């Protein structure tokens, strides 16, 4: 089938260096942008420019001042002894290295992946095109499916002015045989959101390569970008949130058993220095905080501070509590015998598999009140019998 190009009058201006990937301009859709992202980007830009200029100046100085004594000699000896000479001298070459790596990544998808199209995975491709239209992208990005081998992941990237998204097969299956198309729509919209927000531009990629080595700063910018992409995903597929959070926490089959409220409320109950440290050094928001941010839309995501208001009480021990307060096995078994889950039959389902019909829909499990209820007399009699 041949797809005719649109009439010239309907084609928006092509992407250029300063006009951004979308018709909304370089800043994208501002309500969907995490408020901390642009300030972090400006700081990261200043750090990157300083680092590249300093590396270039150092390289020129060491080359033009061959004196092996004095200050130049001491600096040269220190760099050689610590093994950092090659890394510092490579900083001026970083812009070229980033360009080459982006070209190779794009070529690898073109050579080794299955490309989505109107005749190849058209359902997923339509999700890509609809997200691109929703976010005002100037051109439809390429979309590829790659062999996952058990890994559940997706990413967005680009080369030059070309943009593309890649979905690994194990994740892509959630919109097919596992049948949670809204979860897949959220994932695809999240990745197209990265493109629309300018996260994969050459300059943004270069900046992230440098500030990755700056404690806290690079990871904070990366997390802010993920929150922004989540806001794009939610804008198109809010119904996909429970499925995606379950998918990221328990995989494509067991993910249907994950209760969104129980997961999100742990962002409130599980806190302390060590939990925050895990968040601060992560490139993506930790799962509990991310689930809470997607559930509570009064705030466009969290970055450094955990949420404070829980929707439901904890139903299991909290890690920050003293071990003296943790129940014994006998106590927990007593609770299990005297209570039941709120969705009958949920405890008998061990994941969702293709070709199997389940009496309880996944959303009944994902969005139920996570607090168990006491058994009534008839339940007790049945259990005893």
Commentary on this structure:
By secondary structure, the protein is α+β, with helices and mostly antiparallel strands. Among the domains are: 30-238, no CATH class; 330-384, no CATH class. It is 50% helix and 6% strand. The strands form two sheets. A four-stranded mixed sheet has the order 1-2-4-3, with helices on both faces. Strands 5-6 form a two-stranded antiparallel ribbon. β3 (154-159) and β4 form a beta hairpin. α8 (202-211) packs across α9 (217-236). The longest helix has 28 residues, at 37-64. The protein starts with 36 loop residues before the first helix and ends with a helix.
What profile does the largest beta sheet have?
4 strands, mixed
Summarize model confidence as the mean pLDDT.
85
Question: What value does the Rg take, in angstroms?
Answer: 25 Å
Physical arrangement of strands within the biggest beta sheet: 1-2-4-3
Order of helices and strands: HHHHEHEEEHHHHHHHHHEHEH
Number of discrete helical segments? 16
Low-pLDDT runs: 381-385
What's the gist of this structure?
This protein has 385 residues and is an alpha+beta fold. It has 16 helices and 6 strands. 50% of the residues lie in helices and 6% in strands.
List the SSEs and their pairings.
Layout: H1 37-64, H2 70-82, H3 85-90, H4 94-112, E1 114-115, H5 122-134, E2 142-146, E3 154-159, E4 162-168, H6 169-172, H7 181-196, H8 202-211, H9 217-236, H10 241-254, H11 260-269, H12 273-280, H13 287-295, H14 329-338, E5 339-340, H15 362-366, E6 373-374, H16 377-384
Parallel strand pairs: 2-4
Antiparallel strand pairs: 1-2, 3-4, 5-6
Helix pairs in contact: 1-8, 1-9, 4-8, 5-7, 7-9, 7-10, 8-9, 10-13, 11-13
């Amino acid at each position: 089938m041949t797809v005719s190009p649109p009439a010239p009058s309907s084609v928006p201006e092509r992407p250029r260096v300063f006009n951004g990937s979308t018709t909304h301009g370089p800043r994208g859709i501002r309500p969907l942008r995490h408020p901390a992202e642009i300030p972090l980007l400006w700081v990261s830009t200043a750090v990157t420019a300083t680092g590249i200029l300093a590396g270039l100046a150092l390289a020129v100085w060491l080359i033009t001042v061959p004196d092996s004594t004095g200050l130049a000699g001491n600096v040269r000896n220190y760099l050689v002894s610590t093994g950092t000479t090659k890394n510092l001298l490579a900083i001026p070459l970083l812009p070229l290295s980033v360009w080459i790596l982006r070209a190779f990544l794009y070529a690898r998808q073109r050579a080794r992946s299955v490309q989505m199209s109107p005749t190849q995975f058209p359902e997923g491709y339509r999700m890509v095109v609809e997200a691109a239209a929703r976010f005002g992208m100037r051109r439809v990005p390429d979309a590829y499916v790659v062999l996952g081998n058990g890994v559940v992941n997706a990413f967005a990237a680009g080369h030059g002015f070309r943009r593309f998204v890649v979905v690994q097969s194990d994740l892509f299956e959630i919109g097919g045989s596992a049948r949670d198309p809204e979860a897949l729509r959220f994932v695809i919209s999240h990745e197209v959101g990265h493109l629309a927000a300018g996260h994969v531009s050459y300059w943004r990629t270069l900046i992230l390569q440098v500030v990755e080595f700056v404690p806290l700063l690079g990871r904070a910018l990366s997390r802010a970008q993920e929150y922004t992409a989540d806001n794009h995903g939610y804008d198109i597929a809010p119904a996909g949130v429970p499925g995606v959070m379950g998918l990221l926490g328990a995989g494509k089959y067991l993910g249907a058993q994950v209760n969104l409220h129980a997961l999100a409320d742990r962002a409130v109950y599980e806190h302390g220095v060590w939990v925050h440290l895990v968040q601060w050094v992560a490139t993506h928001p930790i799962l509990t905080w991310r689930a809470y941010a997607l559930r509570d839309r009064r705030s466009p995501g969290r970055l450094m501070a955990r949420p404070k208001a829980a929707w439901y009480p904890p139903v299991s021990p909290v890690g920050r509590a003293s071990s003296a307060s943790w129940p014994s096995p006998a106590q927990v078994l007593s609770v299990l015998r005297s209570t039941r889950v709120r969705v009958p039959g949920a405890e008998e389902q061990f994941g969702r598999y293709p070709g199997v019909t389940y009496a309880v829909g996944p959303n009944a499990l994902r969005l139920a009140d996570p607090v168990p209820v006491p058994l009534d007399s008839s339940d007790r009699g049945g259990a005893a019998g």
